[in-house]
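Below is the data:
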Amino acid sequence: MSLFSLRTWTLRRRTVALVVTVGLLLSALGVFAAITAAQNNRQLDDVLNRASPMRAAGEALNTAYVDQETGIRGFAITGNESNLMPYTQGLADEQRLVARIRELLRPQDTAIRTELDVVEQRAASWHRDVAEPVLAIIRAQGIVAGQDRLRGTSTEQFDALRVAIATMQDRIQVLRTQSANAAKESSRTMVAIQIAAAAIIILAGAVLLLLLDRMVSRPVTEFAQQVREVADGDYDKHIVSSGSPELASLADDVDGMRQKIAAELSEVRAARAQIEWVNDQLKVQAEELTRSNRDLEQFAYVASHDLQEPLRKVASFCQLLQRRYAGQMDERADQYIAFAVDGAQRMQRLINDLLAFSRIGRLTAGFTAVDLGRVLTEVESQLETRAGEDAEIEWSGLPTVEGEEPLLTTLFVNLIGNSLKFRRPGVPPVIRVSAERADGEWRINVRDNGIGIEAEFADKVFVIFQRLHARDAYEGTGIGLAIVKKIVEYHGGRIWLDLEVEEGTSIWFTLPAVPGVSDEEQEVPVREQRKEVSA
């Protein structure tokens, strides 16, 4: 495996490889430790449960033979059977101890088994050649003959027996020493295994710490420093990472985000420059509008004072001519004078309406709470003459709104005045005003049963000086609905023509609801005002 391929390993892959390697090493050490522990247990078992009991049994066997020899000599001196007790007990102990030693032997203990065979052979030879003949002579011929036989017997056989027992004991001691040394060696091996396991764990921890430091800690610190530099305004700084592939991928993603942000910031800067340029242009236009408004105010002043004075003089003298010389000149002269009087009067009405239109929103007394029900009462009073006795004006559920009462009065005077003006011939006019609350504003409707407005003129009726009928058919200057639209927009509302009605005209407009006041507090009791007089 190449070094380059190792460098492309992810942190997760490297960590897994380290954990697997350490796990395999520790597993191998664990298996080795288990084998060593089993050997150590066997060796300790050899020391504690075999060698030591065999050596103790060998010492007891030597004592048993000594007891047998002592019992023979005591019986030979006294001839008393009770003195044979050590001999008899020694024989029983001999059989028991030899059986115990053979029980503790394993197949690999050939040297000890051989020496035990020698001991048994020499013990049998001593019994056959010394002990049993002496016992038989004493019982048959008496203690004197037995003593003579015992004195004539050599001690070489018994000494050889004890030498064989000593040799067997040496073999057992060798086994014990070998097992003890092997147990010590196994213990040292176990300690070495533990030290190796601890060293592997420490080394793995050090490698893991080094790996985290080189692939995570330091790269993350460097990465965070680069991000802080970008956050401080260095949007052109390229963000890279020398850490793990995961961190390098994250750095690439963050750098891609930085590039997008830098590109968007460039666009924002360009847009800001454009906005600043537009603002400069707007300031210039605002200054132009301010200057134009001043000129218009000056024109309004001139129109209201300087222009109306000569216009009134012309109208007055034309009317004076009409009254004084009517009928004294020919019919054409009377017609010309009538045209001049009518033109001067219409010119005066146009100027007055234009002045009224220009004053909306310019000369203001401030918004106050206005009860629209009270406004309708005032409007009805003003239009009483125009309404006549057959008109019917109704309103219900009108709220209290924030606005200028004179302007709102003018608004309803124009709307209801138009409904009275454009009535259907022979049909008493019926005008209904209602209101409803929707989306934080009041929607107010003025509807009549007049001649109505065609859908094709829906966008033209609110244009200043726009007339839908001939001048001689209906009086007026065509500025009324334009004044209504300007008043509504001045109060923050909108106005439109309802085209879904089948008869008459229906106009909707909105006024903002009073903030912080509930619907129930703004609504007023239903009011109805009717004038129903038969024609």
Summary: Residues 364-522 form a domain with the Heat Shock Protein 90 fold (CATH 3.30.565.10).
